[in-house]
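Final report, results section. Input specification for complex C-07:
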Amino acid sequence: MSARFAASNKVAVVGYAHSQVTRRAGQPLGALAVDTARAAIADAGLRLEQIDGFVSSSLLPSAGGQAAEDGVSIVSSAWLSQHLGATPRYVAGFDGIGQITGSMAIAVNAVATGAADYVVFHRALHNPAGRYHANPMREARGLQQWTAPQGFFGPLAMIALPHNEYLQRFGASRESMAAVVVEARKNGARIPWSFWHDRPLTVGEYLSAPMLFDPVCRYDCDIPVDGVAAFVLTSAERAKDLPHRPVYIAGYAAGTPTRRRLPLHWPLDDIVEVGAETARRLWAHAGVSVGEVDLPQVYDGFSLFVWLWLEVLGLCPRGEAHRFVEFGGIDSDCPGGIPALSGGGALGNGRMHGIPQMLECYLQLARRAGERQREGATIGLACHSSPHFGGAVVYSAEAF
Amino acid sequence: MTERPVPVPDESSAPFWSAAAEHVLTVARCAQCGQFTMPPDAVCPHCHTSDPRFEFTPVSGRGTVRSWTVARQAFLPGFGDDLPFVLVDVELVEQKDLRMIGRLLDGVDADLHIGAAVILGFEDLAPGVAVPAFELL
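Structure output:
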């Protein structure tokens, strides 16, 4: 049995739409999702009647205990399909971590197996009112009883532990942390729909920001936003008749943590060891090697992930990513730089999960990136979440 | 009375919190393979038995720091007055990679480094409710 994906390059992205990314959208999230999905279907040169599949992930990623209300704070595929007035054959959602890569795998499989011919894939992110992660919990039940009474709670504490572990072990500095965020914001400032459009960040601004959970400051975290992205997928065969150049999905892989931990306990070694295994399976699945990827888009919802993805993918040696980035290794404007955050990422767009990474792969490989078009990009890679829970999808401009 | 969230013991944890109230740290130990697990689970994560019959076994409370952070914001009630405070990721000496997370009671100026030795302490939150924490040795 080959490790190569049997449907490698047999499914393609054929159109997209992306809303403005704002702190609070001027319309309900569900309405924004309907408008964005309609625009994506039109962009692909299709009519609603042709859409027979809907796939997404709909997690509201806050620790604040806000209600997940479909159409209001989340938008599921079932909700979207119903409110578009569609009559799909196939509707599915992904509920693990690594939402974008996980749900893309479901969408690709649906097209490859014929469960659906034209799939609308979407992600709708919401910024609920009030403090994003504040939780009024007075009693800690279930798994929370092992950590919350001790004061270990929420994603900032979660990421601060491995981030500090990395700094201590490899001698990384806050200046090297700044380099990650400045690169993301430089690229995000060039994206018209980004929350941070025209607002790059300087090293000085980064270094003067107060700590939240040492060594993490606000700029190491993507900002919560309202925003929706939608893509249309179909088979490579059907894609030939559509207006835009198709971008093929070569393969994908996701991580599965091997060790059980306390809630939100993400030790550095867990992330890197499982992430390296995820990368190994990814290359086999997609039929490419790291050297063939000219547009790797690493995930950056927390800035630490940039270093860890660069290392697990083999783009730089273990423990070296902080220096690699600080000395221009991912400078998207430098001819020798790896454009790992050229799409601005989550730090440069807002909390759109792995959408900026996926969209940059699509726009560049479809030759639709406009003024930002990079010459000669052929193989893109879009990561989402932590290397040990999340995953990555490989995109190709050509079917190979 | 604390405003901090207090643990609500359940079938899987009642012996742990009873011992903690007496300032004794216990860890769930699988009756089949003898390995420690924090927290207990329906299946032993080491030998994968579906009948682990965990026993909460007293441990030394000694360990080493694997990482730490200084919390400067509180997302839970009752921690606001304690800001800033230190959280430590500790590997207990009883078993490789047996990890706990708790507050370091020495304060934010403590001289921390990876591998620093710590010993268990307890915070009494309410009558009959104590949660594990750590102090530098």
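The CA atoms of residues 42 and 50 of chain B lie 7 Å apart. Chain B has a mean pLDDT of 96. This concludes the modelling results for the funded period.
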